[in-house]
Amino acid sequence: MDEVTRHHDADAHVASVLRTLDPDRDRPADVLAAEHLTVGFGGQGVLRDVTVALPRGTVTAIIGPTGSGKSTFLRTLNRMNDRVRGFERHGDVLLDGESIWSPSHDLLAVRRRVGMLFQRPNPFPMSIRDNVVAGVRAHGIARGKQLDVVAEIRLREVGLWDAVKDRLHGSPYRLSGGQQQLLCLARALAVGPEVLLLDEPTSALDPMSTEAVEALFKTLTPALTLLVVTHNLGQARRLSDATILFYDGELAEHGATAQVFEQPRDPRTARYVQGLVG
Ligand SMILES: Nc1ncnc2c1ncn2[C@@H]1O[C@H](COP(=O)(O)OP(=O)(O)OP(=O)(O)O)[C@@H](O)[C@H]1O
Ligand SMILES: [Mg+2]
Description:
- Helix 4 crosses helix 5 and helix 5 packs across helix 7.
- The protein has one domain: P-loop containing nucleotide triphosphate hydrolases (Rossmann fold, 3-Layer(aba) Sandwich), CATH 3.40.50.300.
- The strands form 2 sheets. Strands 6-7-8-3-9-10 form a 6-stranded mixed sheet, sandwiched between helices.
- The relative contact order is 0.15.
- The chain starts with a helix and ends in a 5-residue tail after the last helix.
- A hairpin with a 2-residue loop joins strand 4 and strand 5.
- It has about 280 residues and is α/β, with parallel strands linked by helices.
- The chain is about 40% helix and about 25% strand.
- The protein binds adenosine-5'-triphosphate and magnesium ion.
- The site of adenosine-5'-triphosphate (ATP) has 12 residues, from strand 2 and helix 2.
């Protein structure tokens, strides 16, 4: 056996051992996938035949003009549109290979695994501490004194602990906008989601807070898979592995972020990333 073959065999062996240690080894490589997803409200089409998969542990950005269906897409992925008047859907969304509408996935379970953060921070009208543990409590993940531990861990994780440790029982509405968004992120992370959907998560924040929130997003992968809608093209480039362009309800482009920005395949993408439409 020559040296090269020996190295190759050793590499293959290491790879196979690592695979057996990987908790995700029996799961599909794509944590979430839309398949021929068509969505409308009361007969008005909004999304047309969208097929896209999110590889586990990656960041995908969604860009596109206003009204192109970005938020509708995100909201459909964790069933937030289910009860919206007139909501109609064809096609499917698979979570670990299984439809999010299948009876074996109840709504709460889907929401727990696929979390969401909105443009405007939306703390609940309760104390800072209770905000962080609201989902944990609702899902029965922890209770009593454990909740204080969970709150501290999550607040430390998002870098808010020092700022709020002396006012855990105070109102979240006295925090700055950036801090409120971090609080909402702590709340979303506390239930242990696998996917986080982020709809323009920093557009209501000042540049300093945006930087802090972006830096935090980077620490969340590969443990989590992120899908972030943004009008900030710089943010899409900084954060994402892959970028999707929605245009008038269609997926116009989907590829590695560098490719989408530097060598777009679709003329609509080229115009959009050059700032000619928006
Ligand atoms: N509940 C609803 N009922 C009827 N129409 C809706 C509903 N939600 C969204 N739409 C329509 O779907 C289209 C896409 O809206 P959506 O909010 O998904 O766009 P977007 O890409 O997120 O835009 P923006 O960049 O402005 O946030 C719009 O024409 C909107 O009016
Ligand atoms: Mg939107």
